[in-house]
Design goal:
Elements: E1 6-7, E2 10-14, H1 20-33, H2 39-50, E3 54-63, E4 66-76, E5 93-101, H3 110-121, E6 134-140, H4 143-146, H5 155-158, H6 170-176, E7 180-188, H7 199-203, E8 207-215
Parallel strand pairs: 5-6
Antiparallel strand pairs: 1-2, 2-3, 3-4, 4-5, 6-8, 7-8
The structure holds coenzyme A.
């Protein structure tokens, strides 16, 4: 394995979305994550991998003497709908998407090691390009963790989810890595973990995503 795909205890291995076993495992992890767990997403990602606009990896680690697929991550030069501020086909701005570590493997430093690797891949062909100047990521707004209001922190209980601890939002995690918020917009359907199917229609709104950016050069 090329050493630039390795950091600490973590090795990134390109996914093979032609392999039925890998598809099954990815769908399983996506279902636990709560978004983009349909076969149509897999087909879309596979065509983007084949046309060179997406690199997607298993986050693997040796845990208790087993090599496990602890999660997955993608680095892309396109997004839907197209927006060069988020992902530029010329690879000057790359976006991190579908980043997920299985809950049982969190807190081991794998997330941090994965980001170190992916940030270095952004300026490395064929994944990124030497002229890549920024990485963008979007995640659920930190106010769903921090703001004691019905539409924010109250959202979890309303949809039958455990309310998360304050100070543990993914947005704060990215901020600590040097990502700076530059915009927000309604994005995520209200079907986290499949427990609130139809919620977007019932609630009449999408959950707010924060967009964060890290300058590379
Ligand atoms: C955010 C995430 C990637 C972190 O991965 P991880 O492997 O648990 O993180 P690490 O172990 O590398 O954490 C590094 C540091 O951040 C801290 N940390 C971990 N998760 C954190 C969180 N959610 N908020 C704040 N701090 C966190 C760790 O305690 C550790 O701190 P330290 O350096 O002081 O010891 C992981 O929790 C995750 O996948 N979350 C879900 C992401 C998601 O919902 N994606 C949307 C669907 S694709």
């Amino acid at each position: 394995m090329a050493s630039f795909l390795h950091q600490g205890d973590c090795t990134l291995i390109p996914v093979n979305l032609e392999d039925p076993n890998e598809i099954t495992e990815l769908l399983r992890q996506r279902k636990i994550c709560g978004w983009n767990y349909e076969r149509s997403s897999i087909e879309q990602w596979n065509s983007e991998i084949n046309d060179g606009t997406r690199s997607m990896f298993w986050i693997t680690a040796l845990i208790r003497e087993d090599v496990v697929k602890a999660g997955h991550i993608a680095l892309a030069s396109t997004c839907s709908p197209p927006d060069p501020e988020l992902a530029d086909p010329d690879k000057s701005v790359m976006t991190i998407s579908t980043f997920f570590i299985l809950p049982e493997h969190r807190g081991l430093g794998l997330g941090r090691d994965t980001m170190d690797v992916v940030e270095s891949l952004a300026t490395r062909e064929p994944y990124g390009a030497p002229h890549c100047r920024a990485i963008v990521v979007d995640t659920l707004d930190r106010r769903y963790w921090e703001l004691d209001e019905e539409g924010w922190r109250g959202w979890w209980a309303k949809w039958g989810q455990p309310t998360p601890e304050k100070g543990r939002s993914n947005e704060d995690w990215y901020r600590r890595r040097g990502y700076i918020k530059f915009k927000e917009r309604p994005k995520y359907t209200n079907d986290l973990k499949g427990n609130a199917q139809g919620g977007a229609e019932e609630g009449g709104r999408l959950l707010i995503a924060s967009y964060l950016r890290k300058e590379l050069q």
